[in-house]
Predict the 3D structure of the following.
Amino acid sequence: MWSMLYPIVIIVVSNIFYNICTKSAPGEANAFAVLTVTYLVAAAVSFATFLITSRGKNILTEFGKTNWATFVLGIVIVGLELGYILAYRNGWAMNTASVTANITLAVALIFVAMIFYKEKITVRQIAGIVLCGGGLVLINI
């Protein structure tokens, strides 16, 4: 049970601080300067943690196990971060920007999973999509 729960806890707690920090990024700073510092810190933390968790392993071999998705992930994460920075700078409230983005993402991922991963869409998911659409209208009026 804990193995299913703790990743979600990490995601939720990290997302809380993520939105606080993104909304608090200085508006007068170039968004790409903010992202550069952010990713330098992230790279340092990731590399240090990688070294700690890879004791006894060949570091170059571990890097060699990556594929195209690793590189594309780096690009799309910049788009994700930039989108939130720009949303907050352009007046979105934290309580609606994040909810709007996450509901839209959840609905889109149902279709991505169906098309690319052959996952089945259920009547309950269709009902959820309809409810989410109504929720988006209500929170953005």
